[in-house]
Amino acid sequence: MTLPKSHNYDPRHVFDVMVIGSGISGMAASLFSVNRKLSTVQAGSAGGTLFTSGLLDLIGVYPLEEKRLWKNPWEALDAMRADGSQHPYTRLGNNRISDAFNELIEFLGSVGMRFRCGGDHNLEVITSMGTVKDTYCVPESMWHCVDAYEEKAPCLFVDFRGLKEFSARQISSALRSEWPATRTLRVAFPGTEGRNEVHAAHLARALEMAGVREALTEAIRPEIGDARYVGFPAVLGIKRTPAIIEHLGKLLGVPVFEIPMMPASVPGFRLKELFDTELPRRGLLRLIDKRVESVNRTDNGNFLLAIGGNDETVLIQARAVVLATGRFMGKGLISDRKGIYEPIFNLPLHQPEGRLAWHHKEFLHPGGHPVNRAGVEVDDCFRPVDAGGTVVHENLFAAGSILAHQDWMRMKCGSGLAIATAYAAVNACIDTLKKKDGEIG
Amino acid sequence: MKFAFFKGCKIPCYLEQYGTSTRAVLRTFGVRLIDLEFNCCGYPNRDINFEAFILSAARNLALAEKRRLDILTPCKCCYGSLKHAVHYLREHERLRRTINAELAGEGLSWNDTIRVKHLLTVLCDDIGLPALYASIKRPLSEISVAAHYGCHALRPSAVVHFDDPLAPSIFEDLIAATGARPVDWPRRLDCCGNPLRGRNDEISLDLMRTKLCDAEESGADCICTACTYCQIQFDEVQSEESAADESVPTVPSILYTQLLGISMGLPERKLGIRRNYLQIDKLRKSIK
Amino acid sequence: MQEPLLGSRLLFICLYASIILCAVGILFRAVRWFFINTGPASGSAGVFSRIAAAIKGFFAILISVRFFLFFKLLVLDVLMQTRILKTDVSRWLMHFLIFTGFTLLLLMHAMDDLITKKIFPEYFSTIDPFQYLRNLFGLMVIAGVAIAVYRRIRHRGPLLATRYADRYALAILAVIMVTGYLLESAKISSERVFNRMVNDFSAASEPGDDEALRAYWAREYGTVFAGMGEDASEKVIARGRELNEQSCATCHSSTRSAFVSYPLARAIRPVAVSMNTVKADTVLYYIHVLACFIGLAYLPFSKMFHLITDPLTIVINGLAGRKSARGASALPRRALELDACTGCGTCSRYCSVAPVFRITGNREVLPMDKLRTVRRLASGERMSAAELRVISEGAFACSSCFRCTEVCPAGINLQDQWSASKELLAERGFPLPHVWIKEHTSSEWSDLARCLQGPGVEIDAVKGRYYNLTGDSEVFAHCIQCQTCTNVCPVVASRTGRDGAVDITPQKIMNLLRLGLNDLAMGSRMTWDCVTCYQCQENCPQGIPVTEIIYELKNRAYARYKTIVREDDNEEEGAVIDARAAMRDIRQDKES
Q1: Considering CB atoms only, which of C322, C433, C555 is closest to B50?
Q2: Could you give the CA distance from residue C294 to residue C108 in angstroms, rounded to a whole number?
Q3: Residue B42 neighbours by CB under 8 Å, 6+ apart
Q4: Could you give the domains of chain B?
Q5: What residues in B contact A278, CB-CB < 8 Å?
Q6: Total domain count for chain A?
Q7: C356, B193: Cβ pair inside 8 Å?
Q8: How do residues A105-125 score in pLDDT, each as one tens digit?
Q9: Do B166 and A46 touch (CB under 8 A)?
Q10: Can you list the domains of chain C with their CATH numbers?
Q11: What is this structure's pTM?
């Protein structure tokens, strides 16, 4: 079967799966789906994965009220299950979550962005704020950061004049007590002399050119001294990052690493770039910057989705849908004075009774706010269910942060939740499709 | 297959070879190109006056409608302009009425009955890659080509409907058909800089130079364009600039129709490769 | 036949005077080509270097082996006027009829002593085929003039404006032709003219012969004799015919072959006798000949001058090719071209950006009007800043498609005129808006607008617009200031020097709109240096049409700021200076 391409797809084509949403969970669902040879179409905005830091969290904090940090994330999940939490993770075994991570990391590694997982423990990475963050997976560009911090090795942090979101001095002074052997250096990025504002993504793209790297290292090399590592803000290229890091390391004579920055940061661009370019090569049809305007079902239960479309609305027929539209920022959920809604399928939601119950009285309540746990409730196959537990559509699945009973920001489980639930949803989807095929056959 | 051929303003005098090579290539596939009395697509005046831009484009659309022909344009800026006009006219009824009232004076009107296509879309989808592959007499396996997508055909995708705006593949597919090796280069979707020519030459040239450095580092023997303005930038402007500044590598640029024409064995007389300011060394032997 | 009138001293003086006037006029205009400034940096090339360059160019053409092209241009483009035929058959017919008819009349009729008689020794203006041909050629001219008048009425409008020069040209042709026919018919019917000739040529023989010849001429030649009866006998007529054969026929073919004048003579029979009495033929002769002299004397200053300039332009530009002319020789060439334009309007009909004129109503968009303006600019006419602003708007709307140059019947390299005049306008301080708007910072513009314009202008600017992206908060309110637009913007990323760098970033433009500070966004460098690559719009996670917003900001900024220096339409160029002075004051206020 020739898969449709975005410039010539046949509107009469019946897709196996339509993924709605283009954040991490939407992208992961699309990946899992094309990996399983399903004909897949995805609709969503252009920049869904931009706001990721590049670090993939599994889980950091549980339970929220205690703010308990876990060295071993799997133990945290076990604890969650033991407590009878309704967190979506509890519908999955550790093996399946691990498989989901592995499949995604394998994909990213195969297209040039390798990751390192801590396995049974979270890794410690320093951030642009000078704090230390626990995470499950770090990209190759930050490996040496983990090592350097662990060794507390002599290290030079470099920052750039005009790059406002990153201060080497702040990091160094914040970490002084635990990591005293750090020094800082501020240089003008080649070609931006005299500018009072520079932007991370622009520096990253400029570093893709060898001449710029050479000019940059000229300015840094005399300052290396005893440093065994050089840490840069996360601007070391959007494409070809491994080659850039290797080249810089060679030019400077010591290994270099990136320090993650606040979103939207360059590692987010990298992930976006990889998903954007590699998934269509694997057969994904992407409808970018398109909204789902309406949904109908055909007689045989397929979804008929009208995708707009300022001026052109296209109709997509799909045998199953994975809903990965996120919460409020992704417009997967919308709210008004009366309550919260799911705009596409108008799904029943788990949400606080009335608007007054959305938030605790204390803004910084350790347990987070009830509204942050609102969302779609699902069964074990990740199909949305109503309050009584009845499946809404047998071929509609939900994944990612739209799911109820989780507060991924506070629990530090965003990426893992997105990846693992997308994995589960796509697998459940396959079972459903097979069953349908069986009925027809 | 028959199309109204929308050449745009620059081809007749600044890039004649694009017109002749497009005709030569399409003729071999049995595509007939009809010349109509088109005017400017509106793009050059869009900065100044929206309505003038729409009327310019709408008049062209209406002329083609009158002849019941779809429009084929080899220029990406013209393509973008015409598609934008269609988009605005569809979306806004009052604008449509005003424009149609203006067009009525010369017996024209816009009724949204024809389609606007870019040359590459016609080659890839209407003629089709299999037919293209079958027409190749002399695969150009010796060269690596950097496809330059050009902004106005690709974005905004919601309006122009050309290809996946973030991961387009149509141009590489078409280059691969000629036997040449399409190179993956980080800045393939970036702007050539021509829209700022004469408006801010410093930025315009910087954008071009950055792309040239990238193409060279990525191992491209040449850049391939399918847009009048992009080709003018990478050919004429680059040749002027490379004479002035030696620090930037020279990467010659070729029009896709010329590249395809060579591999199809069409004569130089039609393809006009020698009219390009910069020549590709590896292709010298192949030009008839 | 004796023509006593041309021999009159007065007419000879007039003839020579008009020839001298014409020659001096032509010389004057030709010399002017080397003096007027027709492009940027004209001052750098002196008159002598222009003349030298022109002579060099002339010899370069002489020694180049392009005679074939030369004759092709001469025959096809100059004599056959194929350049007109390419665009408009009816206009070609009109022009061909006038040109051919008039030229042949000139050669065969007006200059008969010099030319026709030399070739045909037996020539008399009253024998065939000359009498017939004269009528034919005259009719060609009249038909041509009629088509011209019809076209000018039928197609009147901005693309075919009829001005004084056009009216004069048609009128003088019409006067010459009509008086010519009237003169001929007056002579046909005139008894006095008949008598004069009988006295000179007829050997009066038998009595009654006189009567017979009269009767015969009255019937056959259309002469009208006072008091003559209708009823001449066949016998008398036969004798008249005989006499006619003997004395007259060698010089007089039947007047019926004057197929216009003869019917005209029949038509004026009722008044023929009185016309004869008042010597109408002599009067008409004076009018006819003097009109010709006037036409001749005034030729270098009338539209008819194109008889000289157009062939020159066609040949020179045809040989030189259509590439832009550079150097000193370009200046006289452009000046010559300015004289070659007849205002036929073909260029305007084929103008690629004519829709801009249809929307804005700015006639300076249309090539024909633009060339008139170029002529005014070249003549050093002082124009107000407001006017120059309008001219600049028209000049920079051009998309350089060369179509006007392709179709110009006079072979003018219009595209070269446009590039020269655009450079000239830029030199005089009226460049592209992308340039002049960046002369001030956005806050300066915003202050200027506030100082020199009342409130409400912005509201007026929105009226009648189809889109209001920049005024509708629904469009940009969801901006979360994530900087994606800035991060993907190649213009912000461009590593230029400090002067070339943009002032604010796209995401800040969104922020300014959210704050209602549209003025600051409109005049910003970011807005005017936007390369329109649509990366920001395509990548915006919130789906905000960033590029479209920037386009609209440019539209609005232009509409608003162009009126700022226009405040005082009566002012001369000083208005710009006023605005600059206001600017200085604002700056000083800020500093203090």
Answers
A1: C555
A2: 20
A3: B52, B53, B54, B55, B56, B57, B81, B85, C355
A4: 2-117 (1.20.1050.140), 128-286 (3.40.50.11810)
A5: 167
A6: 1
A7: no
A8: 999 999 999 999 988 899 999
A9: yes
A10: 89-203+218-226+243-301 (no CATH), 307-431 (1.10.1060.10), 438-591 (1.10.1060)
A11: 0.90
